[in-house]
Automatic annotation (TrEMBL):
Source species of the chain: Saccharomyces eubayanus
A Pfam family: VPS38
Name of the protein: VPS38-like protein
Domain of life where this protein originates: Eukaryota
């Protein structure tokens, strides 16, 4: 699954609890609590974003000092991974009188911020409440969708099991494990269902990841590439300037305006134009003749494959005495999908014949486009006999058991194949030889 989806966010928080509620730090004097506080400390917490926006204020709880658990939070829709958590407690006036010098100013209990934490949800350590012991004061434990977590810098001690456990004597009776056939079937169904769920989750996460591209530093690669190109060009320019200065010092370069005559240069260009154009026409004519010859040979090779059959063939070729009309006499047919599907349902022998004909047709078009005319096609053709494919994933053949998934891909392959046929037909109709 993509890392973007595995990151913990605000919306993953389900509940928050605080361990070891206290009005002073760990190294402070606990005498204030033991002497002046009879009962529990009322507390609530404030949840804010990293920008100071208020997200949630909890209810007041005073059930326990060791572990104060608040009710479940409402659904948070934030996508940020950073939060600010503040624990607010009600300090009794007796404690305030013992701390503040001006005792007359303290008349009632006051709400004070006991602890403030800036928490990165992706840098927490997992804990298990049953076997974990937290010794620090006012430490938060966040319950996320995938477990309980606390601060990464907090030291968590594991509770040891009691040493005096009663051990029951092991029975000498040998128990033979057995498994029913119905249980195996259920297990097989569960494994198959879990694999399908995992595959669907992977596809869904891929689509979600593609729809949320990370725009951070998206132009950094282009900036670095342009800077490297500028530096390389500057280096080449300096090198050329050094070589030019060396040649000027040696006297190999003479600046004279009379050495080059613009009039004579234009006349030489005009004289060469006619000869170059005539040679180009001769070369193109030989190339066209070679292409027509190869196409005629290819037609002769594929005549034995029933592609040129009048009734069931896909290609129609009209013989002509002139070699220039070979391209005009070649007619390609597109696939009629509905008629092919009906013919494939007749028998397995008919399906084998159709698969071989489609493979030959694909090979003929592939050789004509790539080897003779060097024509790029919109979809890649791959010849594998009677099991040829298009674009490396769409089969151009029928099977005995046409499942819906294979039939969908087959229809897609036929549409792509017809697009390639139309591309070649359009090229041959507009082909102009010298």
């Amino acid at each position: 699954m993509k890392s973007y989806l595995l990151s913990r966010r605000q919306r993953h928080i389900r509940a928050i609890c605080f361990h070891n509620i206290g009005l002073c730090k760990t190294n402070g004097n606990n005498k204030y609590i033991t002497d002046h506080v009879a009962g529990f400390v009322p507390c609530f917490f404030i949840l804010e974003s990293i920008r100071g926006e208020l997200l949630y204020i909890s209810e007041v709880q005073s059930d326990s000092l060791q572990k104060l658990h608040f009710q479940e939070l409402p659904k948070l829709n934030g996508a940020s991974a950073m939060i600010v958590l503040k624990l607010v407690g009600k300090v009794p006036k007796a404690v305030l009188h013992s701390i503040v010098s001006n005792k007359n100013a303290i008349n009632n209990d006051k709400w004070c911020i006991l602890s403030t934490y800036t928490i990165d949800l992706n840098k927490l350590q997992p804990i298990c409440d049953d076997v974990a012991l937290i010794t620090s004061i006012n430490i938060p434990v966040l319950e996320l969708v995938d477990g309980s977590y606390t601060l990464s810098k907090e030291n968590v001690k594991l509770l040891k099991e009691p040493t005096s456990l009663h051990k029951r004597n092991i029975s000498e009776i040998k128990i033979k494990n057995s498994l029913a056939y119905s249980s195996l079937l259920k297990l097989n169904k569960l494994l198959e269902y879990s694999s399908q769920v995992h595959e669907e989750m992977s596809e869904l996460s891929t689509r979600i990841e593609d729809s949320f591209p990370l725009h951070k530093n998206q132009h950094q690669w282009y900036i670095e590439t342009v800077q490297k190109s500028i530096a390389a060009l500057q280096t080449k320019t300096n090198k050329k300037n050094i070589e030019k200065s060396q040649c000027e010092d040696n006297g190999t370069i003479h600046h004279s305006k009379t050495e080059i005559s613009l009039v004579s240069q234009d006349e030489s260009i005009n004289d060469d134009y006619g000869s170059i154009y005539s040679r180009f026409v001769q070369i193109k004519d030989r190339l066209d003749q070679l292409r027509i010859k190869k196409l005629y040979q290819l037609i002769g090779i594929f005549r034995s494959t029933n592609l040129f059959d009048i009734g069931k063939g896909y290609i129609r070729f009209e013989r002509s005495s002139s070699s220039d009309n070979i391209i005009e006499g070649l007619k390609l047919k597109t696939l009629h999908i509905e008629s092919l599907l009906k013919e494939a349902e007749e028998s397995s022998k008919q399906r084998e014949y159709m698969n071989s004909q489609l493979g030959y047709y694909l090979l003929f078009l592939h050789l004509t486009a790539t080897q003779i005319f060097k024509l790029p096609l919109p979809y890649k053709l791959m010849y594998y006999g009677s099991t040829s494919v298009i674009e490396s994933q769409y089969p151009l053949y029928f099977t005995d058991s046409m499942i819906p998934k294979h039939q969908t891909k087959l229809l897609r392959a036929m549409h792509y194949f017809n697009a390639d046929i139309l591309q070649i037909k359009q090229f041959l109709e507009n082909y102009c030889s010298t």
